[in-house]
Specification:
The complex is a heterodimer. By secondary structure, chain A is mainly beta. In chain A, 0% of the residues lie in helices and 56% in strands. In chain A, the strands form two sheets. In chain A, strands 2, 4, 5, 6, 9, 10 and 11 form a seven-stranded mixed β-sheet that branches. A four-stranded antiparallel β-sheet of chain A has the order 1-3-8-7, with no helix packed on it. In chain A, a hairpin with a 2-residue loop joins strand 5 (44-52) and strand 6 (55-58). Chain B has no helices and eleven strands. Helix content of chain B is 0%, strand content 53%. In chain B, a hairpin with a 5-residue loop joins strand 7 (61-65) and strand 8 (71-76). Classes of the chains: A mainly beta, B mainly beta.
């Protein structure tokens, strides 16, 4: 089964500084990869998803960007952080067959970002 | 973004009680998923449902895919302290495989 690694686990950054969160996946190939953000006590907001190397789709306009330089690597970045970027960022992976079966998402442990 | 209607928002229960939560939508889904999230961790998949009317159990957890394909419920029997956390439903429709999420049900067990 797949394993999803995220780092760093915790990050405190000043406003205006850059950001790089990394996600790597083991145990599968050609997965769909996702970045979600979760505000405190809230649900999950999809930020980006990728169906392959170099293919990024953005769900909401924002201060963040994503890149997929390798099949099992997904990076979330920002050039200048805003206070509103604080939150819990989750990387997720989807594997399985087309047609609906195996459409489950599996999540990493998350990266908590605090922007001060 | 678009969300499922998940209720209740939170639940205070006594240890040993049964728990029930549900998600509803005005749209038809072809997959329903239930996740649990512990504080500071990523959500973990509990149960996946793929057919209308399907009833699936995972230990003390039971979930059903509504016959209309517009709803799903999750039951937890004989709750224990480690059941505390936030439970999310997620639905998938069409062929784009993107999930639509409920806002979560926070389960709290009274001491």
């Amino acid at each position: 089964s797949q394993t999803i690694h995220q780092w760093p686990a915790t990050l405190v950054q000043p406003v205006g500084s850059p950001l790089s969160l990394e996600c790597t996946v083991e145990g599968t190939s050609n997965p769909n990869l996702y970045w979600y953000r979760q505000a405190a006590g809230r649900g999950l907001q999809l930020l980006f998803y990728s169906v392959g190397i170099g293919q990024i789709s953005s769900e909401v306009p924002q201060n963040l960007s994503a890149s997929r330089p390798q099949d099992r690597q997904f990076i979330l970045s920002s050039k200048k952080l805003l206070l509103s970027d604080s939150g819990f960022y989750l990387c997720a992976c989807r594997t399985g067959l087309a047609g609906g079966l195996g459409g489950e998402l599996f999540f990493g442990e998350g990266s908590r970002l605090t922007v001060l | 973004g678009q969300q499922l209607n998940q209720s209740p928002q939170s639940m205070f229960i006594q240890e040993g009680e049964d728990v029930s939560m549900n998600c509803t939508s005005s749209s038809i889904f072809n997959t329903w998923l239930w996740y649990k999230q512990d504080p500071g961790e990523g959500p973990v998949l509990l149960i996946a449902l793929y057919k209308a009317g399907e009833l699936t159990s995972n230990g003390r957890l039971t979930a059903q895919f509504g016959i209309t394909r517009k709803d799903s419920f999750l039951n937890i029997s004989a709750s224990i302290p480690s059941d505390v956390g936030i439970y999310f439903c997620a639905g998938q429709r069409g062929s784009n495989y993107q999930l639509i999420w409920g806002a979560g049900t926070k389960l709290i067990i009274k001491p």
